[in-house]
Design goal:
The chain has 334 residues and is an alpha/beta fold. Helix content is 52%, strand content 10%. The chain is built from 14 helices and 7 strands. Helix 4 packs across helix 10 and helix 11 packs across helix 12. The protein is globular and about 65 Å long.
C-alpha cells in the first residue's frame, strides 16, 4: 500500500471516529476527550476558590454540587433567593459529609444591582483570601415570537444576561490582573452559536457574550488569565418558569415534561468543570442531535442552512428548540 493510500485510510478512520463521538457523546470532541484524557475536576480545583453566580437552581446548582465533591475547594454561591442557596449548600454538605460547612459561602446577590458587585468581591476575598475562578451563570431564557417582542423586554434581558455579567467580570478581571492569574467561565448557550427560534432577545444576548469575551481573550492572551465559554443545550431546570416572553413583567411559567430530551444539571455541571479545569476556550454540551447540528452550523453553514429550511418546514426545528421528545409530539399532533 503506497503512502497516499495509507493517508486516505487514516483520514477515513479519523473522521469516522470524530463522527461517532459527535453522534454518541453529549459534548463536543475536545470536551469528550478531556473527560478521559485531561485533568479531572477533583484534581483541577483542589485548593481553588470558585465563585458561582446563578447558583440557586439549574446549571449553577449542578456546577456547585459537582464542585463540592472536589476536596480542598472553596465555593461561593450567589443568587437572589437566599433560601434556595441555603438548600443547595445543605444538599452539598449532606452528600459530602467530610466537607467543612465554612468551605461554602452563601453570598446573596442581585446581578442587576451593579453597585453590589464590588462589595461582593470584597466579601469573597475577606472570607477566603483569594478568588481563582468566577463562573457567570446568572441569566434568564425566553419564549416569544420575534416580531412581537417589546423593546423593554430586550433591554431588561440584556441588562441581566449581558451588561450585569460584563460589569461583574470587569471588576473581577481587574483583581485577576493584580493577582497575576485567574479564570473567567461564562455560561453561554448553544443559542449563542445557532439562532434559536422563538427566543430572539435571549439568542441575541448569548451571541453578545461571545463577542465581548472573544474580544477580551484576544487582548489578554499573555496575562495568565483563562476564559472558557460554555454552551449547554437543553438542561432540566426551572428556566421555563422564569423565562421572559414578548411582554414586560410576564413569565412563561411552565414546567418541563419528564419526557423532554434534556441533560441533567449535574451532568452539565461536570462537563462544565472539565472544560474549565482543562482551560478549554469553548465547550458545547447537549444530547444528540444538537452537537451534530452545531458542528454543521460552524463548519458547513451552507449545508446547515438547507437542513434548517427542511427542519423548519416539518416543524422539527421548533420542536427541537422546545426540547421535546419528537416522537411523542408527533403522535400528539397526529
Amino acid at each position: 500500500m503506497d503512502l497516499c493510500s495509507v493517508l486516505c485510510v487514516l483520514l477515513i478512520v479519523f473522521f469516522s471516529v470524530c463522527l461517532a463521538i459527535i453522534c454518541l457523546s453529549d459534548s463536543d470532541i475536545i470536551t469528550f476527550l478531556s473527560c478521559y484524557l485531561g485533568k479531572q475536576p477533583v484534581d483541577a480545583f483542589k485548593d481553588s476558590v470558585v465563585w458561582i453566580t446563578g447558583a440557586s437552581s439549574g446549571i449553577g446548582e449542578g456546577i456547585t454540587k459537582e464542585l463540592s465533591k472536589c476536596e480542598g475547594s472553596k465555593i461561593v454561591i450567589s443568587a437572589r433567593r437566599e433560601d434556595e442557596l441555603k438548600r443547595v449548600k445543605a444538599d452539598c454538605l449532606a452528600a459530602n459529609p467530610s466537607r467543612n460547612q465554612n468551605s461554602i459561602l452563601i453570598l446573596p446577590l442581585d446581578m442587576t444591582n451593579y453597585a453590589s458587585h464590588e462589595p461582593a468581591l470584597k466579601k469573597v476575598l475577606q472570607t477566603f483570601g483569594k478568588l481563582d475562578v468566577l463562573v457567570s451563570n446568572a441569566g434568564r431564557s425566553q419564549r416569544a415570537k420575534w416580531h412581537e417582542i417589546e423593546q423593554e423586554v430586550d433591554k431588561q434581558l440584556f441588562d441581566l444576561n449581558v451588561f450585569s455579567l460584563v460589569n461583574m467580570n470587569r471588576i473581577v478581571l481587574r483583581h485577576f490582573f493584580e493577582a497575576g492569574k485567574g479564570h473567567l467561565a461564562v455560561i453561554s448557550s448553544i443559542a449563542g452559536k445557532i439562532g434559536a427560534p422563538n427566543s430572539g432577545s435571549y439568542t441575541g444576548s448569548k451571541f453578545a457574550l461571545h463577542g465581548y469575551f472573544e474580544s477580551l481573550r484576544n487582548e489578554i492572551r499573555n496575562r495568565n488569565i483563562g476564559i472558557t465559554m460554555i454552551c449547554p443545550g437543553p438542561v432540566f431546570s426551572s428556566v421555563l418558569k422564569e423565562a421572559f416572553t414578548s411582554k414586560i413583567n410576564q413569565k412563561v411559567d411552565q414546567d418541563h415534561s419528564p419526557s423532554d430530551k434534556r441533560m441533567t444539571p449535574e451532568r452539565c455541571g461536570f462537563l462544565s468543570l472539565v472544560a474549565i479545569g482543562n482551560q478549554l476556550e469553548e465547550s458545547w454540551c447537549s444530547p444528540f442531535p444538537i452537537i451534530f447540528l452545531t458542528y454543521l452550523s460552524a463548519y458547513q453553514p451552507y449545508i446547515f442552512s438547507k437542513l434548517s429550511q427542511l427542519m423548519h418546514s416539518t416543524g422539527y426545528f421548533t420542536k427541537l428548540r422546545d426540547n421535546k421528545n419528537i416522537t411523542e409530539l408527533t403522535n400528539k399532533e397526529n
